[in-house]
Design brief:
Helices cover 48% and strands 3% of the residues. It is mainly alpha-helical. β7 (624-625) and β8 (631-632) form a beta hairpin.
């Protein structure tokens, strides 16, 4: 699997869409595409600085884009009634799966997708709004490195630096010197100097000198960015990074696994966990070679980044490392995308139905194969940045208390805007700017992608992104389209950010303890300020099981289920469904078993009917014990049988030791 991943990384273009490795080989031309192209040309021709010859060429292209006869409809628009029926059924089934995850009390007002208009986020107390006006619009424009989100040019394209798309390395190995100092050009890039010199041998002396000077500068620049030697050591403050030592870390053997021992690695490398993991993932993705990244600046930045994370229980550098690993897992392991395919009619109508056996019939690819190297580097970098300088308080708390940060960002995605702005400000330090080998267009595109990925982690956008993805999957999601690739990448980083309930139970319990402790810290500050303590943040009234049940039902399950149905979750050999879904159901069942039903208010019950007296007596004999040793009778005509109550009581007592909510000190 790793070999296939490396080969795909080497054969991929860097900043242009990876059309040769995409899911579909052909893209139908529609009238909307032609209209969009003509609109871009018209905007280009509006520039007064264009030379006459360029303006004439643009006019000729615009004329060619105006056919004399109507453009035939694309094949995907000529769908048979049967295909349309399958598509509609698939869409309705996805909506029904999401709808079953919400309690009836929240379903009083629904959007045209059948989702509740307002859903409370149990992790922050915020109200997540699901827009009910119209379907979210997803642009069909294919972005490039010189276009903005509107599809219009924003910066002139500059010549790209050499990028190797071949399997061999960009640098040649140095050969031993045989002719003394005169053989200095036998280094990594001397072949370009020799070629340039020979090609200009018949030119004038001044031209020859100019070419030699330019190539000499290029040789020196290439030497600066050559791969580090195996014994190189890079000092960053008081910390030294040795790539050879990092590569020999035994934890990397489990890097492609979902249950990667992130806590064990953190205990061994508390101050450098994030930077070491980022280096290893960049190396696995071959990003150092493709972009000729400067190792010293790379370590300077990512070590400064991890030092900027606060020493708080949850939103720290350990969480950033875990999210980065989650993104890597979802992009480097093989998946079986089901884009545009209907769900079998006999599939079970449950919140998270089992993976259909026909899933493996689709081609196995990795998400990274469909992305360009620039998009992949932006996604990994955003994962490391996404919670930088997090204060351990929620957006709702900052807005309610009019924190300077909330005022600065107008109460909108306060923390996410802060993470993105501060982490990019840190990157602008000349000693940290490891992107100096990218041209201006690539840097602009990289920044745009990083900001989009970080802002997508705001749970306010949770349902908007899910609805957009489901709408695209049920119609024509195409990984040739940069907008669709960005949408998939947003899902990837979002799932990695909230992956705790999808991990094995022992890891999930550790993360639960940390998030609860951070919540209790906020609750203590709210109590000190004399304001109402946010739900689930009162240390004196812990409700861990209810917190996790609400978070899994309302936030994690809708996201993981839509990715599962689209075939974007890796499946281990021998399993019929992803381990992410298996862990999610197991952990959810654990928390549900711990929820203690709230005591009902005592009400005067009517005289039992004769046929109910026997049931009353049997229920009384299996009543629930109270604190003073008496037996409290809880029975009604629709109550559970004594056998079920007895089994539930026994199960609760037996699981109390290992399934009880986290003990917070």
């Amino acid at each position: 699997m790793q070999k296939t991943f490396h080969e795909a990384m080497r054969n991929r273009r860097t900043s242009l869409p990876a059309t040769s490795l995409s899911l579909s080989k052909t893209t139908p031309v529609t009238i909307s595409n032609i209209t969009e192209a003509r609109g871009i040309l018209v905007d280009l021709m509006a520039g007064k600085e264009l030379p006459p010859n360029v303006l004439g060429c643009l006019r000729a292209v615009a004329t060619l884009l105006t056919p004399s006869t109507p453009l035939p409809a694309a094949k995907d628009q000529k769908m048979t009634s049967e295909a349309q029926r399958v598509r509609d059924a698939s869409k309705e089934r996805r909506i029904s799966h999401l709808l079953t995850l919400f309690p009836a009390s929240l379903s009083t007002h629904h959007t045209d997708f059948g989702l509740p208009c307002v859903v409370e986020n149990p992790y922050s107390g915020e109200q997540l709004l699901v827009s009910g006006t119209s379907k979210p619009r997803v642009s069909n424009i294919t972005f490039s490195t010189v276009t903005s989100a509107t599809g219009l040019p924003t910066i002139a394209a500059e010549p790209n630096r050499p990028r190797s798309s071949r399997s061999e390395s960009y640098w040649k190995p140095e050969t031993p010197s045989t002719n003394g100092p005169e053989s200095i050009h036998d280094s990594a890039s001397c072949h370009r100097l020799d070629v340039a010199a020979s090609s200009n041998s018949v030119s004038a002396e001044d031209s020859t000198a100019r070419v030699a000077t330019e190539n000499h500068v290029e040789v020196e620049e290439d030497r600066e960015n050559e791969p580090c030697s195996s014994d190189a050591v890079y000092a960053t403050g008081k910390v030294e990074f040795c790539p050879k030592e990092i590569n020999e870390d035994p934890y990397w053997a489990q890097l492609p696994d979902w249950n990667f021992p992130i806590f064990d690695m953190y205990e061994k490398n508390k101050e450098t966990c994030l930077s070491r993991l980022t280096y290893r993932i960049f190396q696995q993705a071959d990003l150092f070679r493709i972009f000729r990244l400067n190792h010293q600046k790379f370590f300077n930045y990512f070590h400064a980044l991890e030092q900027g994370y606060w020493n708080i229980p949850y939103h720290n550098r350990l969480h950033a490392s875990d999210v980065l690993h989650g993104v890597y897992y979802l992009t480097c392991n093989s998946v079986h995308p089901q884009f545009g395919q209907g769900v079998p009619a006999d599939s079970q109508d449950e919140a998270c139905p089992p993976q259909p056996k026909s899933l493996r019939d689709s081609p196995a690819i990795t998400v990274s194969e469909t992305m360009s190297a620039l998009e992949l580097m932006a996604l990994y970098t955003a994962a490391a940045m996404h919670d930088y300088d997090h204060p351990g308080r929620t957006n709702a708390f900052l807005v309610a208390n009019e924190a300077p940060m909330a005022i600065l960002y107008n109460d909108r995605s306060v923390l996410e805007n802060h993470h993105a702005a501060e982490s990019w400000k840190l990157l602008q330090d000349p000693d940290n700017f490891f992107l100096d080998t990218l041209d201006a267009a690539e840097i602009k595109r990289f920044r745009y992608l990083v900001l989009e990925y970080i802002l997508a982690t705001d749970l306010k956008q949770h349902f908007d992104i899910i609805i957009s993805f489901n709408d695209r999957v049920s119609s024509s999601l195409d990984m040739n389209n940069e907008a669709d690739r960005m949408l998939v990448s947003k899902l990837v980083i979002k799932l990695a950010d909230i992956n705790s309930p999808c991990k094995p139970y022992n890891l999930h319990l550790k993360w639960t303890e940390r998030i609860c402790e951070e919540f209790y810290m906020q609750g203590a500050e709210e109590e000190k300020r004399g304001i109402t303590i946010t739900a689930y943040m009162d240390r004196s009234n812990p409700q861990v099981a209810k917190l996790q049940d609400s978070f899994i039902s309302h936030v994690v399950s809708p996201l993981s289920c839509c990715m599962n149905e689209a075939g974007l979750l890796p499946i281990l050999p021998g399993l019929e469904e992803p381990e992410i879904m298996i862990n999610l159901r197991h952990n959810h069942a654990k928390w549900l078993s711990e929820i203690v039903p709230e005591p009902e208010e005592e009400e005067e019950l009517p005289e039992p009917q004769p046929e109910q007296e026997q049931d009353q007596q049997s229920c009384s004999s299996s009543g629930v014990g109270t604190g003073n040793g008496t037996i409290e009778e809880e029975c009604s005509p629709i109550s559970e049988s004594p056998e079920k109550l007895e089994r539930a009581t026994t199960s609760d007592e037996s699981d109390q030791a290992d399934a009880q909510g986290p003990e917070i000190r």
